[in-house]
Amino acid sequence: xxxxxxxxxxxxxxxVRNTEQKAEKLLxxxxxxxxxxxxxxxxxxxxxxxxxxxxxxxxCNRMHVGRDYRLPISMSKTDEEFMVSPAYDVFEIKNPEILxxxxxxxxxxxxxxxxNAWFYTDADVRGGLHWKALCDMQLPIPSITKQxxxxxxxxxxxxxxxxxxxxxxxxxETAQAIYKAWxxxxxxxxxxxxxxxSNGGExxxxxxxxxxxxxxxxVGKLDDVKSSTLGGDWGKDLPIDNYTKEVYCIRGTDxxxxxxxxxxxxxxxxxxxxxxxxxxxxxxxxxTEISGGSPTQSTGRSVFILNKPAICSNFCRVIxxxxxxxxxxxxxxxxxxxxxxLFTYExxxxxxxxxxxxxxxxxxRIAIPKPNIxxxxxxxxxxxxxxxxxxxxxxxxxxxxxxxxxxxLATIEN
Length: 414
Hints:
33% of the residues lie in helices and 22% in strands. With 414 residues, the protein is of the alpha+beta class. 30% of the residues are buried.
């Protein structure tokens, strides 16, 4: 293939150990190809045998490519040296004037590269990728000037993606901060637009919550602001018999993307006509994950539906709030989730964690605001959520543009 060269001819393996114990930070490699703090327990471990990674050097974990269908690999962009597992491979480019490190990292980021790496894995149950097989893989190496141009174009997109991700995070934090201020700290705007509690708003003691709440507010269960719940459906992969209605089906894993207005990898399924009528998501529905999670992540991730022609899977539930309580209920569930309080409403079956949704709604006590406060909160929340969705859709387009640019590397010319 024109311009294609053997990778092994341009890189060299490094085995520099942390013998002088200068490096203190231990990092692993995420499957999405970035360095992250290691979760390994290194108490009592001899860290002198761990490998050192310096700026513009690469590290990879070749052990599980066959299982994960991806090669965890990343390039260091920091001046600070750090450690990685002795089982990782560390390498660098022999001559950066011929092969630019950031260009090579772009090549490693391609979906096609991961598919090719998977093809070359061994027959082990985990599917390891031999070092020689990695070195025998080929890539196009245009002129160094062209490589720098490509990287510059790529970084423009990456910087835009990073900016949008930061904006979404700030907006989500703002929405949660406003919820906490209004409904936990009771600093919602009074008739003069000033924070209620700190500006002399009348408070009354409530025995059930064991704290003061604003005068005129009620106390009840989370269930008091809920209208109903619906189960999900999974349907069929393809249209068969009476399973002919094509829909998107939101799973727990799709909730992070869906909550910022992205389609992401939401699968298409085929369900019965009557199930579409009964289970189709409507505006202001709340989809909550009830099965899954991890030791460090509870079940209960939720997404607020604005306009989605979809249903949810069997491992989620649709929660319908009473009129005027839709945004309040969604933000309350999200607040409890972020605070780690949903861990207390979990049970386990066959090693899988499940959210006891009925217990959550019947046991969790809340201060129920006056209608005028809810109305004002709706305006604020919907404005913020609209911005989040708009930025999320732009972010999705930017990701598609980035992937398109990465795919085009295979046909790049000098």
